[in-house]
Amino acid sequence: MSNGDATIPAGDLGAGRQYHRGALNDEEAPLARSALLVLAIAALPLTPAAVRASNCNGTQTGMAPLTALGAGTYQGYEGGLYPGGSNARPFAHDVAGVAIADAITPIDTAGVASATGRIVMISIGMSNTTQEFSTFVPLANADGLRNPRVQVIDCALGGQTAALIKNPAYAYWDTVRARLHAHGSAPRQVQIAWIKEANATPTTGFPAATLTLMEDEGSVVRTLKSLFPNVRIAYLSSRIYAGYATSALNPEPYAYESGFAVKWLIEGQIAGADSLNFDPAKGAVHAPWLAWGPYMWADGLNPRPGDGLTWICSDFQSSDGTHPAAGARQKVSNMLLDFLHNDRTAQPWYLASAAAAPAPERDPVRLGVAPNPSSGSVELAIATVRGEPWRLEVLDITGRRVRMLETGVGDGARHVLRWDGRDERGARAPAGVYMVQFASAGHADIRRLAVLGRR
After folding, report:
1. 185, 197, 295, 382: most buried, per Cβ within 10 A?
2. What is the dihedral of CA 398, 399, 405, 406, to 10 degrees?
3. What is the CATH number of domain 367-451?
4. Pairing, β 7-9 against β 18-20
């Protein structure tokens, strides 16, 4: 850290505690805003006059994902998901989380251990969260590695920002209880939560808006623990890319900076903030054990170091470039499933047999592109799923459609189609990089294609 002698005020984190994380002055680091009224909330439907098509030119920001930033800094603040610029949980915090995970067993709706009970995992958050988790639910239900006693229930809801749902009396929590009951569950049966939150129309910049979000999310995890007393683990994620956004709901760089809110909140628990205590041996318990779930931000079309993650314009709803379309929902769902398969604090309760768990199988390749690079026509091999509507299209590097090649309904067979290198008007596409996308219900495969100059 470039300025290790300054502190982030704990605010809602704990009574009077502080921990060192970069240079802030009193104006930059406001204390808890318990009376904050947010007039415009994230993900509420925009009025027709406010809706604008997504900005497909916003292909990158130049900012480094926290996982790639590491010990480097963003405006003086260290990267990495955890303290010290690391992406790995500190040893003691990891050991505590694994011990908690090992102790999670099925319980009934009264919270009593039962062989016929359930291990309930819920989502908490806003519209992006429910759109993504509702795609994840059928994926998890069909997962052959999942412990059959695990039940995943989407409890996120559009418009529910952290500033609102931190209040335990807010109507959102009635919706959560109603969704649990509709699935035959109850508040005392919830043991795991995935939380993804933001605040609406932030204007105060960094780090002020980020500190506000951190404080609000700190209140959210305490509210969660008070209303669902058996919740043991909460995985937190920050927002996906928002460079294509044209609404003021939560554009860049606020989406990127929300990662620091999650990072600082978890660091507060690791540092021992009283109001985030999860260990009964250390006093009153106010929060579940906190850790990162999947970190999902990548800089648009700039492949993320390590895994190559990118976000293209068509991953997002064309109306605002903010909310996830089918492509983004599937990417998030796959990342969440991969996390549950591989994280040490998820394997003991999520996997049917953690001791014998094989490496997770990836989705079968359903799109092939050859030759690549190409200076002429291209063969595109697709594997369809019976009964699923599908489409095959070519996009330019900004995510704009160049050519809709074909649509249909899957027959379960493999087909080979051809792109002649022409756009919708019949003109030859210029040399460059293109995206070939094969999409069907709940699935999207994308391959990059380099088109060379014509011979």
Report:
1. 197
2. 180
3. 2.60.40.4070
4. antiparallel
Write down the pLDDT at residue 398: 62
- SS3 at position 128: helix
Residue type at 268? G
List, in order, residues 6 or more apart from 308 with CB less than 8 Å away.
none
118 C-beta neighbours (distance < 10 Å), count: 23
303 phi/psi in degrees, rounded to 5: -55, 135
**pLDDT at 63 > cutoff 60:** yes
Q: What amino acid occupies position 396? A: D
- pTM, rounded to two decimals: 0.71
From 392, 33, 351, select the one nearest 199 (Cα to Cα).
Answer: 33
Residue with the larger pLDDT of the pair 239 and 381: 239
Residue 367 binned pLDDT confidence (cut-offs 50, 70, 90): confident
Domain ranges of the chain: 48-356, 367-451
Number of H helices, E strands in the chain: 9, 16
Once rounded to an integer, what is the mean pLDDT over residues 180-204?
97
- pLDDT of the residue at 410: 83
Kindly give, in sequence order, each residue whose CB lies less than 8 Å from that of residue 48, ignoring residues fewer than 6 positions away.
Answer: none
Cβ(54)–Cβ(247) under 8 Å?
no
Q: Class for domain 48-356, per CATH? A: alpha beta
Structure tokens at 378: 């291209």
Q: Are 127 and 43 in contact (CB under 8 A)?
A: yes
Residue type, 166: K
